[in-house]
Every structure is written in structure tokens, then in C-alpha cells.
Amino acid sequence: MSFLHPTALWWLAAILVVVLLYWLRPRRVRLVVPSVLLWRRSLREQVRHRPLRRFQRNVLLLLQVLAVAAAALGLARPQLSQSGQDDVVAVVDVGLTLQATDVQPSRFEAARRAAREFLVKVPARRVAVVTAARSARVVQPLTADRWQAVRALQELQATDAASDLEGAVAVARSLSPSAEVHVFSDRAARGVRSHVFGGTLEDVAVTGVVATPLEGGRMRVTVTVHNRTSAPRGVEVSVAVDGRPAARLAGRLAPGAQDSWGVVVPAGLWVEARLSPQDALAATDRYVALAWQLVRPRVLVVGPADPFLERGLQVVAGEVSRQAAPQVAGWPEFDVVVLHRASAPLPPGRYLLVATVPPNLPVRADGEVRGEQIRGQSSTHPLLRFVDLVGVRVSRAWRLLPRAGEVLAEGEVPLLWAYEAEGVRAVLLTFSPSESDLGLRPDFPILLANALDWLAGPAALQLEAGASVSVPAGGVKEAVVHGPQGSVRVRAAAGRFSLPPFDRAGLYVLEAGGTRKVWAVHPATSPRRSHGVSPSAPRRPPGAELWRLLLGLFVALLVAEWWVYRLSPRSST
Predict the structure, then answer these.
(1) Which of 177, 194, 195, 386 could pair with 208 as two cysteines, CB 3.0-4.6 Å apart?
(2) Is the Cβ–Cβ distance between 111 and 187 less than 8 Å?
(3) Contact 544/79 with Cβ under 8 angstroms?
(4) What are residue 74's phi and psi, to 5 degrees?
(5) Residue 398 and residue 363: Cα distance in Å, rounded?
């Protein structure tokens, strides 16, 4: 038996109060009277019924004690466990942090071993296995065959993806309304029985690598490292291009700090950054990114020149075209139009707006502000991936009053704004880079690369571990995907190839006929995901709770106490 609200059992202490009141009840009071003539008959009745009265008083006390006990137990909501009858679902976390080796041989192996022992011994009618990664997967539906579920467990592998534990619990509960869910993870889940392996993880991770081409067969590689520990850490990063060592970076990070370092290396197809020495979570010590652009966006710059802006755009997009004054008729030929201090009504398209506020967007400029500083920024928008703008100083900017869209960075006023509607996608920076220290920061080219990616689509196919991809088959019936764990063949369905999830970080290559596509997959930068699924209280099979029965018993005891009290003989006068 279990209780949904065990704290209500403290009400059982009220039994002591009932007993205490019983012993403190009023006693007979001795009185002097002139005659007992009229009391004799009453006394004879008292003597004849004395055993019955003693019995009735004890019954009243017993009924009161039982009533209090029934009320307390009813408030505690007891549940009968129907061993050997309920369904049991094991949710096994296969997310990134389960690869940590602070629990030997790893958190994942310890969790999988415990889940196996649990499924073998638990008395249940049927069992099932669900994994928690970027998305939940039912690897073994409900079955009466325990060893089939154990075999499914043995085939599991930890991934480099984020872990959506709450979503997996919701999927587990959907398998059966009476299922008892057990979670095997390195963190507890609300509303279910959790088996936790490992504690706070001390981890230094590479969270971003961006490669931008330079002239003369060179490129700049910017590496972002996050110290997720409680102590300062010195880090060394080795950079390799196409598998060949190219450079080494070193730095020191405060607890919880994140920083970026850049280096110029020979150009190549892909770049890898690796931390040394490795810590308990080796999967976050390596990051692979594409160092080449499949299709460079065609960029048009309109307005007066800004050396920081133009140089940054050339680093990211190569050669750019220019217009001194807006000529809207030629804009559809370009993927992205950059307006710098040049205002014009915007036709449908993709725009990077710098120090200008077009008249047909849901935003207006209300004068200028001076001496601003960015104090906060969005943590979720892809425009700010691997970018830290907090602390950027701005000498002059427009005072922006947005009516729609999303403010991505701000000080006293919004300083970076994004908007998408009615065929227009726009990013608005309220100041020129030359009127701030943004152009001097390594985050600036990354911000421009993110802006062009968000506006025109990604130039390189960079994905987070756990993502699923579907690509057109182009008339080809079969393709081969080469990845870190080997090669696998996939067949086209409805004119597309649906590829297995990219669960491991590294390079993936799809070969289909004469077509070759490449993806660089990196570990999850945020190890935990949540899709807003909030686990409710544990579900129960119908009739498993006893509180209604206890409530009826409580009422019956009150009625019985009243009945016994009414039957007790009265003293005659």
C-alpha cells in the first residue's frame, strides 16, 4: 500500500487528543440533600445498568478513535498496490550527460544495468521500455515477455543529444492508463519513481566552432568554450583542419564563464576543436564544424560605407554588391539586402537593417540615445547562437519603439530586433558597428554569419545531435549514409530519404547517385530539453484508491457513536 499524501497521516496524532479529553471528562460532584427518598429508585436503576454504562463509555471512546483514524487515512489517500497486475514502463535516459564517467563505468551503463535488474524482478503483467533523448522513442512496446524488453535494453546506446526527460515520461504514460513509470537517469523527474545515477556534473565543454574564409587560402576559426564547473579552469584547445593539426589555443575561464578564442589556419573542408585534458564528459570536449560554404548568399549593401560592416560581410559572404542609394527594382536578385543608414519601404524579401528604420515595419524610431550599453540578450534565438553581446558599448543609436517582432538585445532601449511576417524577414541593428565596440569583438562576424543564415538559410549544414533530416531523393531509390558509427543504407519513400537521427557528433555524408551531401553534427550545447510537457500526478488503475471507502467508514462511525450515545440510560431525577 502507498499514500498519495502521506503527510496527512500526522492527523493520527488527534487520537491522543481524543483519549486525553476522555480522561479529563467531568466527574460526579458530591451534593448534600435533605432526603434521598426520591433518589432510591434511580439508584437501583443505576446499579442494574452499571456494567452496561461502563461498556457503552468504552464503545464511545473506541468509535471516536476509529473515526479519527479513518479520517486521517482518508486524507492520506491510500492506494492498493496490485502486484503482478499493473503495467510497468522503464524510461531510460540516453542523453548526453549520461556518458559521464563519474559513476563507473558510466552513468549510462549504471542506469541500464539497474533498469535490466528492475525489469527482471518487478512483478508486473506487462513491461515496456522508452528512451529519453532529443525526442522520446518507444524501443519496446508493452509486452509480457520480460526477456524481449531486456534485449531491447541491451541494444541501447548513449547519444550526444539533449535529453527531454519530461517528454519521455509523457510518452510512457500514454502506453497504458494504469502504467507505473520508473525513470533511470542522472536527474529526477516529477510525478514518477526516479532512479538517479550521478550528481552535479563538473564539465568544461566546447560549445561552438565557427570558420570564416579569408583571402589567400586561409580562414579564421573561432572556438567557444564554457566552464560548467565550480572552480577556475585552464583549458587548451587543439584545432585540426581536415584531420590535420593546425593550431593550439589556450586560456583560463572563471567558474560558469564562457569565452571565445580565434586563430587563423589554412583553409579546408571541415574543422575540429578538441579540449585537453578530457574530463568526465568526453563527448563535450570535441566539436566538429564545416569550414566551407555550400552556397554563399548574394548580398547587396545599400547606403554609405562602414568599414567594420563591409569587412565583416566579406568575411562571411565573400564579395558583396553595393548601391549608394536605394534602387528597389534590383533587390529581388539578391538573397539578402543590407540597408545601412538608407531608408525605403521594404518589398517582400530578406533584410539586414543597420542604423535605419524603414517606414513599413511595425516599429518606429523616436529620436536618438547616446552612451548605451547592452545589458541583456535572448538565450534561445538562433541569431545569437555562440554570440555574447552583453557589455557592448554604443555611442549613438536609434530609440526603437517596436509594436511587433522580437527584441533580441537591449540596454535601456532595444538595440537588436527581429521580425518576420507578410513575406518580410528582417534583422534591425539600431546602431552602426563603427559607432560601437561591436566591430572589435570576435562575436561580430559570428553575429553576421548567424544573421545571414537566419535570413537566407544556412550556408553550411550544421546540426545538433539528435536531429532528424529528410532530403529529396531526386529519382534515386537508395542511398548510403556514412557517419561516425559506420555506414547505413536508406531507401526512398514518397520521393524522399528520411535519415536516421544523427545521435552521435561528427561528420555525416549522404551519397545518392551522383549527389553528395554533408552534415556536421555537434553535441547538444544545452544537455536538457523541455517541450513544455509537465508530468501530472502518477496515474492509477480504477478502484485502486481507498479514500472513498474510508470516508464512508468515517460517516458510519459517527452515526454509530450517536446511536450508542442515544441508547445509554439517563439518570432519573
Answers:
(1) 386
(2) no
(3) yes
(4) -65, -40
(5) 11
3-state secondary structure 512-523: ECCEEEEEEEEC
Question: What is the DSSP pairing of strand 414-421 with strand 462-464?
Answer: unpaired
- State whether 366 and 437 are in the same domain: yes
Question: Strand order in 515-522's β-sheet?
Answer: 462-464, 515-522, 506-512, 478-483, 486-491
- Give every strand in the sheet of 218-228, ordered side by side: 203-214, 218-228, 258-266
Q: At 17, which amino acid appears?
A: V
Among candidate residues 379, 371, 444, 455, the one with its CA nearest the CA of residue 413 = 371
The candidate with the shortest Cα–Cα distance to 325, out of 340, 311, 310, is 340
Domain final residue, candidates 456, 481, 506: 456
Q: Which domain holds residue 167?
A: 87-196
Integer Cα distance of 490 and 483 in angstroms: 13
10 Å Cβ neighbour count for 340?
20
Dump pLDDT digits (tens) for 198-222: 988 899 999 999 888 888 889 999 9
Bridge partners of 507? 520
Q: Considering only CA atoms, which of 342, 345, 341 is closest in space to residue 329?
A: 345
Q: Give the three-class secondary structure for 213.
A: strand
In a domain, 537, yes or no: no
Indicate if 473 and 360 belong to the same structural domain. no
Reduced to 3 states (helix: H, G, I; strand: E, B; else coil), residue 117 is helix
Sequence length of the chain is 573
Peptide bond into 105 cis (omega under 30): yes
DSSP string, 426-456: EEEESS-GGGBSGGGSTHHHHHHHHHHHHHH
* Residue 1 CB contacts under 8 Å (≥ 6 apart), including other chains: 78, 79, 80, 81
**Mind listing the pLDDT tens digit for each residue in 362-401?**
999 999 999 999 999 998 888 898 899 999 999 999 999 9
Rg (CA), the chain: 36
The count of domains in the chain is 5
Is 35 within a domain?
no
Distance from C-alpha of 180 to C-alpha of 166, rounded to nearest angstrom: 15
Task: Report the alpha-carbon distance of residue 237 to residue 232 in Å, rounded.
Answer: 16
- DSSP tag of 459: S
Bridge partners of residue 286, in order along the sequence: 274
Reported for 559-562, long-range contacts at CB under 8 A and 24+ positions apart, including other chains, are 560/63, 561/60, 561/63, 561/64, 561/67
pLDDT of residue 527: 72
CA 84: distance to chain centroid? 34
Q: What is the pTM of this model?
A: 0.56
